[in-house]
Design brief:
- This protein has about 190 residues and is an alpha+beta fold.
- It has a domain of about 130 residues: Gcn5-related N-acetyltransferase (GNAT) (Aminopeptidase).
- It has five helices and eight strands.
- It has an eight-stranded mixed sheet, sandwiched between helices.
- Strand 5, helix 4 and strand 6 form a beta-alpha-beta unit.
- Helix 1 packs across helix 3.
- Bound molecules: coenzyme A (COA).
- The site of coenzyme A has 20 residues, from strand 5, helix 4 and helix 5.
């Protein structure tokens, strides 16, 4: 029988729960902001694309085994949606459903308060303790120092640089690859 997995995560200041169709408007607002798309390969999206995105996320969340958890992040004190932190699981043979890939973005008004780090750390802990994953990977373009800092503060190690491995618009960027292994975590967190 499948292990019962709770898809609600609570931290000191934040509440994370998986996305539903009701979140489409907030997700559209977040993903249509140029400021939060600066270091991404995709342009700010329109409402039709947001609808397709959320539909895909919800479908993947309903699969057995589940192939993705797209967490909407709320500030508990204000009941305010501040961003997203997603975990997608790699099911190709070399990853065997045991390697997760995380990505995140937040509304600019919330930046600089440690929220992205608090949420990411909790999602990593979820990946190891609830899903028993072997590894979680992420990365960012070299210029995205804030994202690199979030990864480092959450315990990820820099594994290398994919030189000019990431195209944004017309320009190739160096892409910094980060990872964290289950064995890197304290036993109490796994
Ligand atoms: C990157 C992002 C998630 C950071 O969110 P956040 O809530 O501000 O993150 P935190 O507050 O947890 O930590 C940010 C860290 O980066 C540092 N930082 C911020 N801007 C920086 C910059 N320009 N250069 C160097 N460090 C920077 C902060 O000082 C902080 O580190 P510190 O705690 O050591 O002082 C947010 O800026 C964002 O959503 N950006 C757009 C989307 C994006 O880039 N997503 C990642 C794609 S890989």
């Amino acid at each position: 029988m499948d292990k019962k997995i709770s898809t609600i995560i609570e931290t000191d200041r934040l509440l994370l729960r998986t996305a539903t169709y009701q979140d489409t408007q907030s997700i559209y607002q977040l993903y249509s902001l140029p400021e939060s798309s600066h270091y991404e390969y995709w342009e700010p999206i329109d409402l039709a694309k947001a609808n397709r995105l959320v539909r895909r996320w919800v479908r993947n969340q309903q699969k057995h085994p589940c192939s993705a958890y797209h967490f909407v992040v709320f500030l508990k004190a204000k009941e305010l949606m501040i961003g997203m932190c997603g975990l997608e699981i790699g099911f190709n043979p070399s990853e065997a459903g045991q390697i997760g890939h995380v990505g995140y973005r937040y509304f600019p008004e919330s930046w600089g308060n440690g929220y992205a780090t608090e949420a990411l750390s909790s999602v990593v802990e979820f990946a190891f303790s609830q899903l028993s994953l072997h590894k979680v990977e992420s990365g960012c373009v070299k210029e995205n120092s804030a994202s690199a800092r979030v990864l480092e503060k959450s315990g990820f190690r820099l594994e290398g640089c994919r030189r000019q491995g990431f195209l944004i618009g017309q320009k190739w960027h160096d892409f910094m690859v980060y990872g964290i292994l289950r064995k890197d975590m304290a036993p109490s967190q796994t």
